[in-house]
Amino acid sequence: MQQVAEYTFKRRILAPESMDNLPFVQKISPLVEVDFKPHVHHDLVLITGDGWCLFDDLAAFNALEIPHDLFCVNRSIRAMTRPANHWAAIDTEESVWLSQYLTPELVGINGLLKHTIGWCPGGFNCWWRVDDKPEDIEFLLWAGSTSYFAILAALYMGYRRVVLAGVPMDCKHHWYEPEGTNGPSWKGQVFHTWMDFARTKPARNVRSMSGYTAFMLGKPDKEWMDGR
Known about the structure:
single chain; 8-stranded mixed β-sheet; 7 helices
């Protein structure tokens, strides 16, 4: 698998392109103007997902002791031992879940920016639009997963490096489910989205700790995370 990745991406058979030329790559912008500066404290942000490997990824990342902000997706915020700066969900039920389980110790300084797509004032305070796309509810069921949305939001907010933890994009169980539970069943369009994104220049600033996203985007090392 690694040899295939190197042959495909490093030899530039799939050369980096602008986001305008790739059909499955979305661009987003805020629906309402937001001052992101009070919520961005470091150049690097860690995005956490709900994959089964979340705790292993966190242990490997934290061992490197890199200063970072924290951007949690869906229920991964409950697995954190430090406050979060951002939280993202696209599914309405996750907003309901957060309102029930969010506690003060999980909220970072200057509050918690809660991101979603579309106007949804209940449970969220940072709303995004999909640019240059039809306002079609079927499309807005988001092809690339909530973690992909979080990547685009993080890059828009000015983070220079993004690391994914617990985002393997496989079909195993979520971290909060028993082992052996059926996990997500991803459609082909989801992987088209990630593969198209991996060909863009912004993707050079994104890495993943494990899984298929690490295969597509590469794994981070300390030098890369330090900006060297």
